[in-house]
């Protein structure tokens, strides 16, 4: 059953985010992108700090090791992004040199291929993270799926625009983005196969996942929000961040109500649980 949930979740986080991003691109392009970014910040920070990290620290793993891994993850993501920026700048330093006819179109095509390959690897890793979350706790799996989908929508929108600029038609860009998103399903299956029998590694995978959520929210998304520095822009941004946090809380509450209802139908009513002095989640 857990594997089924993982497959459904990876399909939802991957394909659904691409479809939504494609719809936004066809209808509005990037007009509402900043709103999605603000909402994503609230979702990512609340899931990382209020759910993923607490789940990791409730394990028997050494707390100091987990904190060290969290720090290493933040520094590692910084270095990966820095290397990507340096490579991008190095490429553009040569744009002043003479190029043969057709060079720009050729480079654009290569750029589109690079986006698809990079996005496929990213989605594969997302699938592993989703698998780890579901193996730790189904509720955490749901929240992680929502978090990844919320972040993927603006990212896929950006990828879609890059592919169109690289010469892809809109329908072709959408088709290849959907294919790329399916690597999340592969990652989910691989993650399940690797971690189902190695539960002791879950806290470390969850900590790395939390570090990625925190880094993306604080280092990538928030600086984009700071570009809109007027009070007229800042108040909606803050409201959307709070909305993201509230959405995570509502999903969490609804899930636990569903679990308690299932327990009651299975002959384990809440009254018996409370009488035993414990709570089941």
From TrEMBL:
InterPro entries: ZIP. Its main location: membrane. The gene is zupT_2. The chain crosses the membrane at residues 6-26, 33-53, 65-85, 174-195, 201-222, 234-255. It is found in: Membrane. This is Zinc transporter ZupT. One of its GO terms (cellular component) is membrane. It comes from Pigmentiphaga humi. GO terms for molecular function: metal ion transmembrane transporter activity. The lineage of its organism: Bacteria, Pseudomonadati, Pseudomonadota, Betaproteobacteria, Burkholderiales. It is a multi-pass membrane protein. Keywords: Membrane, Transmembrane, Transmembrane helix.
């Amino acid at each position: 059953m857990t594997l089924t949930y993982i497959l459904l979740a990876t399909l939802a986080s991957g394909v659904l985010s691409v479809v939504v991003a494609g719809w936004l691109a066809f209808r509005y392009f990037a007009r509402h992108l900043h709103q999605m970014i603000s909402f994503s910040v609230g979702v990512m920070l609340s899931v990382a700090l209020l759910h993923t990290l607490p789940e990791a620290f409730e394990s028997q793993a050494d707390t100091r090791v987990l904190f060290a891994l969290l720090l290493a993850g933040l520094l590692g993501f910084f270095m990966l992004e820095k290397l990507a920026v340096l490579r991008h700048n190095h490429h553009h330093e040569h744009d002043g040199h003479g190029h043969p006819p057709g060079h720009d179109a050729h480079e654009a095509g290569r750029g589109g291929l690079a986006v698809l390959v990079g996005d496929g690897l990213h989605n594969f890793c997302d699938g592993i993270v989703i698998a780890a979350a579901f193996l730790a706790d189904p509720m955490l799996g749901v929240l992680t799926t929502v978090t990844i989908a919320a972040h993927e929508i603006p990212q896929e929108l950006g990828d879609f625009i890059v592919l169109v600029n690289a010469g892809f038609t809109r329908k072709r860009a959408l088709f290849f983005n959907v294919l790329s998103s399916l690597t999340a399903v592969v990652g989910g299956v691989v993650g399940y196969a690797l971690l189902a029998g190695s539960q002791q590694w879950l806290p470390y995978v969850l900590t790395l996942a939390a570090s990625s959520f925190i880094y993306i929210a604080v280092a990538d998304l928030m600086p984009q929000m700071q570009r809109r520095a007027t009070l007229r822009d800042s108040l909606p941004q803050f409201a959307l961040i709070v909305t993201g946090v509230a959405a995570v809380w509502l999903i969490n509450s609804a899930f636990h109500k569903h679990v308690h209802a299932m327990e009651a139908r299975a002959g384990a009513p809440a009254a018996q649980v409370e009488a035993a002095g414990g709570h089941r989640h």
